[in-house]
């Protein structure tokens, strides 16, 4: 979006990456700068542990997820990663602790000869497996194909005062 006087426009941009919109937090003198910052916010959100400064501004066409400490797609993404990189399917093992009425679970996943543990204990086996898968995805090398296959749409706009 373009704003400001015609002789000195200011730009803001948004990028849509796999259904999540990331918007530049500042205005810039060129649309390219605004697009770069929006793309950088998306990149940081997808590659670094979450932080308040790099979260998507909104979800497109998605229902609000229930409160859960992990992303539900991590296990499936890890399985896809294994298939695309000609690795054996990930193997999950579970550690259960606590009394029967209050079990807690921690998972370990082995993929490509490396093992990755969930960061903490979870209330469900599914969440523990998702947590371990998320850790593995952050630690495993990213292939260049990942960025080619991501669904990305750049939206640029001028800010009006």
Automatic annotation (TrEMBL):
Cross-referenced InterPro entries: dsRBD_dom
Pfam families registered for this protein in UniProt: dsrm (PF00035)
GO molecular function list: RNA binding
DRBM domain ranges (all copies): 1-48, 73-142
Membrane-spanning segments: none
Record keyword RNA-binding present: yes
Natural source organism: Pisum sativum (Garden pea)
Protein name in the entry: DRBM domain-containing protein
UniProt keyword list: Repeat, RNA-binding
Repeat keyword on record: yes
């Amino acid at each position: 979006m373009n704003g400001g006087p015609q002789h000195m426009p200011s730009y803001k941009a948004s990028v849509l990456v796999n259904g999540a919109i990331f918007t530049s937090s500042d205005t810039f003198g060129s649309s390219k700068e605004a697009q770069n910052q929006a793309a950088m916010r998306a990149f940081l959100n997808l590659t670094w542990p979450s932080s308040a400064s790099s979260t998507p501004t909104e979800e497109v066409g998605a229902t609000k997820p229930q409160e859960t400490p992990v992303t539900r797609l991590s296990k499936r993404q890890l399985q896809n990663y294994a298939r695309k990189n000609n690795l054996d399917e990930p193997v999950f093992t579970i550690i259960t602790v606590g009394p029967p009425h209050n079990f807690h679970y921690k998972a370990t996943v082995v993929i490509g000869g490396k093992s990755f543990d969930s960061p903490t204990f979870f209330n469900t086996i599914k969440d523990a497996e998702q947590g371990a898968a998320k850790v593995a995805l952050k630690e495993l090398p990213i292939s260049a194909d990942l960025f080619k296959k991501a669904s990305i749409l750049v939206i640029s706009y001028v800010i009006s005062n």
